[in-house]
Each structure stands twice: as C-alpha cells, then as structure tokens.
Design a protein that fits this description.
The chain is an all-alpha fold. Helix content is about 70%, strand content about 0%. It has 10 helices and 2 strands. The protein is globular.
Amino acid sequence: MRIPDLLTTANLVCGAASVLLTSQGQLTIACWLLFLAAVFDVLDGLAARALGGGTALGAQLDSLADMVSFGLAPGFALWSVAMAGGPEGLFWWAGAALCICIASAWRLAKFNVDDRQHSGFLGLPTPANGLFWASMVLIAEGRGFPSTAMAQAMGSWLGGALLTPVAVFGAALLLGLLMLSELPLPSLKFKHGGWKGNEVIFLLLLGGTASALLFGLLAVPLLLILYVLSPLWGRIFQTTP
C-alpha cells in the first residue's frame, strides 16, 4: 500500500470514528475529528503528487473516504443535534441531513468521471461543505470560538440559526445545489511559489488565517462565502480558477 493510500485511510478512520462518537453523544470530539480528516485529505494529495501522481485505486479510495468523513459524518452530527432538541421540525432536520449525504455522493461520483476538474473545481467541493456543517454543529455547542463580545454575538446568532429547522434545510439544499453546479472554483493548489497566478489562493489563506485567529471556528462560514465568491473577485487579478 502506498503512502497516499495510508493517508486516505487515516481520513476514513477519522470519519468512521466521528460517526461512532456521534452515536454516543460525543459531538465535540466527533466534529473535531472531521477537521483532522481534512488534514489527511490534503496530505494524501500532496503525497500523491510528490510520488509522481495518484492511482486509479487511490482516486476511488479518496472519494469513498470523503463520502464518510464529509458526507455521512456531518449529516449524522446534524441529525444528532436535531434529536437532542426534541421532535419539533424533525422533517426539516431529516431533509437537511439527507441533502448533505446525497449531494456529497452525487458530487463525488460526478468528480470521479469529470476530466475537466484537474486544475480547479466545478461546484463546491465535498470537504468544504462537510467542514461547514461540522463547524456549525460545534458553534451550536458553544465550542471553538473566543469569548470576545463580537465573537460571542456571532456565535449566538449562528447557533440560533442552526436551531431553526427550515433555515437549516434551506442552507443544506442551497449548498447541495452548489456542489452539483458548474460554478468554477479554485482548487487551492499552488501553481508555483510566486504571487502571480496564485493571488486568489494567497488571499484566501491570509483571510482565513486572520479570521481564524480573531473568531476561531466562526471563520469557517465566512471563508465558505469568500470561496464561493472567489470567481467574481478573482477576476480582479485576471486569474482563471
């Protein structure tokens, strides 16, 4: 087994462990494991490129791991939040959880057979959607953001939004449609070490780092919005995502 495949397997282990911990009510650890899964997801790609490229087996394994870690696990975590809150709005909660899982499966299957997505993405990537929902669950739990007045106000507002079943379903449906769309988005892979041609990536990294330092996990929803809008403001630099 190649090193990239081992890293992909580590991603899968994090996702499977997250599901098990969620079933035991350990939502905080379960959601943090999904961020660790994302680290392994990045590392397996770096390792594959360093070793001369990926394999057909590695590509399929990567999609299966992503389905568990960024499709099933966050959907199940969201459903667990709903179950803890009582029976009100369970229809909408179930719809949201199913949207996350189904859109992830379709997105990953589409990606595997689409040869246009080598240097960029068409549609919102599955890990980005999964991490958004993992961060929202943690925010609802009051985890992962500082105790400053602004951060607390933002956390309360986002946490309150997560307790509104129709709003959650609407967000899950919108993000699911974005995952299956033809929206061109950057892959966040550096073309080289310089600024020219990597402007969007550098700005997302700088903005993400600054936001994370100031707001912790509250930066994740903001970064998702910036990422989705990157084709628009990226035109300033005349880049092609």
